[in-house]
Amino acid sequence: MGKEKQIFYCKECGYESAKWLGQCPGCRQWNTFVEEKVTVSKNSKKATSIKDKPLPTAITKVTAEREQRIFTGIEELDRVLGGGIVRGSLVLVGGDPGIGKSTLLLEMCRNLVKEDVNVLYVSGEESLSQIKMRGVRLRAQDDRLILLSDNDIDNVENAIENCKAEVVIIDSIQTMCDTSLDNVPGSVTQVREITTRLMQVAKRLDVAIFIVGHVTKEGTVAGPRTLEHMVDSVLYFEGDESAGFRILRAVKNRFGSTNEIGCFTMTEEGLDEVTNPSEMFLNGRPKMAPGSVVISSIEGTRAILVELQALVADTNFNQPRRTTVGLDYNRVNLLIAVLERRGGISLSGYDCYVNIAGGIKIDDPSSDLGIICALTSSFKNRPVGDDTIIIGEVGLAGEIRGVRNLSQRVREAAKLGYKRAIVPYSNNNIDTKGIDIKIHFVKTIQEALELL
What we know:
Blueprint: E1 3-10, E2 16-17, E3 33-40, E4 69-70, H1 75-81, E5 85-86, E6 90-95, H2 101-114, E7 119-123, H3 128-137, E8 145-149, H4 153-163, E9 167-171, H5 188-205, E10 208-214, H6 224-227, E11 233-238, E12 245-253, E13 261-267, E14 270-273, H7 277-281, E15 292-299, E16 302-314, E17 322-325, H8 329-343, E18 350-356, H9 368-380, E19 388-390, E20 393-394, E21 400-401, H10 406-415, E22 420-424, E23 438-442, H11 445-451
Parallel strand pairs: 6-10, 6-11, 7-8, 7-9, 9-10, 17-18, 19-22, 22-23
Antiparallel strand pairs: 1-2, 1-3, 4-5, 11-12, 12-13, 13-14, 15-16, 16-18, 20-21
Helix pairs in contact: 8-9
């Protein structure tokens, strides 16, 4: 019999401690430690012959084979994955409940079976009839799509080997359990053990496995953040549920870029791809509205145009409010200080609200000049032209710094009918051949504001 002991885990990063701590030393988060019971076996080491032990190998003697990819039939998903599903990979798909994780994966299964790919869909929280109902709605009706409703990892492993599956969906990782452990499903110990076994199965059988991880507002025990270092790729669903569109973003990918995003819209028949995200994000933009400007952000290999809105209003408090949606709060406060000091506009007696329309989050510093112009436009109640796009990073001295891939951003704007672009002067060597748009190069925020 093994010896039981109590271990405390951080549910955010997985840090282990022999006692409870208020703040995690690993991720610096407060009140994230949970208690788990661990069984330590005295005879845990197995007798292994010398022939079975792996031997160190020189890197020059290792043969590097190009990874084999399976196309999902969903271009936006293939883009985020880096060109398709890699055999033998373990992919974590996280997101809020109801965001569309299961819907997207079932649509992927529908397309894969049409290409003669053996697929096994395992659900630990839904019955077969419930999956069937969702499959009817998504038109996923094929004898080659095998379903399994079980949460025992031993049964799941046997099913993977017997079905000779090439792609496996585990929905969700929090419901799977190992009966040899006394911990409840969803605990840190269970999730770690299940993920480790799935990783071994993926590498041993050369099977691509997708695991779904739920995220709640309170933060579940052993959420997807605990698993990020164990899997090959981490995909997150985000977006405004009321708006009906979703953003699939890769935050970790060993087989591709982590800057790519996939855009989808939620309909009655499932998730539909959005081939032109700029047009979707700009849909419904008001005409000649003060405080509304269009900026460009680079997401992976493509430029996306979004609407940035600002509202400056008299404050009713001793300290004015600063509210941001879709942008970094501290970055906006910094730009307000630059606008006051370098632009000569005092906002100390006004509330400032800045928003990215559509619910998307922008981290690209090229939006700085757009924020400055939107705040000034709302403050002076003078609209920026509807045919104008604003691109540029702003420094503390009020200078406009250059941005990357400016030519690609401007071409995307010209494609959508924009006639004027305000860009950094340091990017004056861009290739403007074939671009039907008037480009204004500015050095400081004063030049940009005077131009507008």
